[in-house]
Amino acid sequence: MSDKRPTLTTRQGHPVSDNQSLRSVGERGPATLENYQFIEKITHFDRERIPERVVHARGTGAHGYFKAYGKIGNEPASKYTRAKVLTQTGVRTPVFVRFSTVIGGKDSPETARDPRGFAVKLKTVDGNWDLVGNNLKIFFIRDAIKFPDMIHAFKPDPVTNRQEPWRFYDFVSQSPETLHMVTWVKSPWGIPANYREMEGAGVNTYKLVNDQGMAHLVKFHWRPKQGVRNLTAAQAADIQTHDTGHATKDLYDAIARGDFPEWEFCVQLMADGDHPELDFDPLDDTKRWPEDQFPLLPVGRMVLDRNPDNVFTETEQSAFGTGVLVDGVDFSDDKMLQGRTLSYSDTQRYRVGPNYLQLPVNAPQEKAQAHTNQRDGQMAYYVDADAGNKHINYEPSTVGGLQEAPRPDKEYHQWVEGHLGRYQTSRTADDYRQAGERYRSFQDWERDELIANIGGDLRQCPEPIQLRMVWHLWHCDEDYGRRVAQTAGIDLEKAKALPPLPGKPAPHERRAATTYTSGKVEEAAPAK
Questions:
Q1: I want to staple 18 with a disulfide (CB 3.0 to 4.6 A). Which of 150, 171, 371, 422 is the partner?
Q2: Among the CATH numbers 2.60.410.10, 3.40.50.2000, 3.40.190.80, 2.40.180.10, which is that of 23-365?
Q3: Catalytic pick from 35, 56, 246, 472?
């Protein structure tokens, strides 16, 4: 690259020497509130479009309910969490779910090759819990500071107003962590047949905390009882010729005729810790936890049984945030989760307004009615009616108003220690290995679709991007790289001769992985 290019700066004009990493305490986090460069970047990104969402603009929603089994696998759920929504049986928790595509605008076709949003608002007796995820179990990037760049690369060119393959692969070719997700999205899994026959996943790593203050790492998953079905590019193109909203119609019609879609809610659990025996960091959202080592354990079931009365007031004004958790579910130091937690709710305050939680679709259920000292702001239309003395909008007070809730008997305390700086994960072997494993796991027809889709895209890209992408794919799996090169007419030997990306570990520099074979969850120790 030319060293004569202008230097990247913040909007304050400060030179940016690391545009890849949040400031965090040590390599694994947590992130810190004084991440000025990130906060400036992500809050500006949240405000790039009005009034529709910057991402997940095209979508539909439905109401329903969730019921917990009271167990996680064969053990009481209370062993792992004190969240009532997961431990109490017989309780019908209201839910609202919004399904969506990611990149396209509000009127874009639902046949687009794109991850699908799967956002669930559970209105529990302890307040709202938003589980905001996708249909695929991973994501493109593992550090939230890269999110605006990723979306800009995937969105239409600001000059031509077209989604250009070279922009997508230009970003991907410089970010090996994306290879796993690219392998999923460019396969038939990138076009679900509809929203009912689609998996959901929280994607990020969270923690479950029990009443003893002990934590386990957790991944959340939704498995459709209807099964999973995806489309080929040809099938999607055929549907798009006569219907750009086929998935919305399918969901609406199914609920209207009483064919209520259902998902089983499952978790994967892992003892809290960094797990050096694994070739990947459990907090890295570009990686899947192998299900033969960390099985999916059933927790409950969700049924969608009611369509919205009004699309705008319920579906479009529904607002979700990854920071909306209930007691017994907690954050991990997953850098995408920490960045999303700021970005999502910040977007809603900007897009819908600071009082978006007063809207019925977003407000908690009556048993968990909100009582705050927050006042005023755009579109405020009520003040908490039973907060005691209405004159007191502060706490503490001796003459009325609100008071703090009792603390749990044993709180979860995470020990945090490390040098503050900008870090990239050093455990990158699975950037290539998991993508290769996914390629080999596909059925023949899925591999054929994957090769045709990526090969067709790369034919439209400049040679440097073509060569680097083939280099990456060949290191994921030799057959993968060879077939893409043949399909796109790219010189495989020329691609293989490229050096590793500057500043990135070479794919062959992999330590031998220690197989994690226990298949069970270790007992977590109380935090220090």
A1: 422
A2: 2.40.180.10
A3: 56
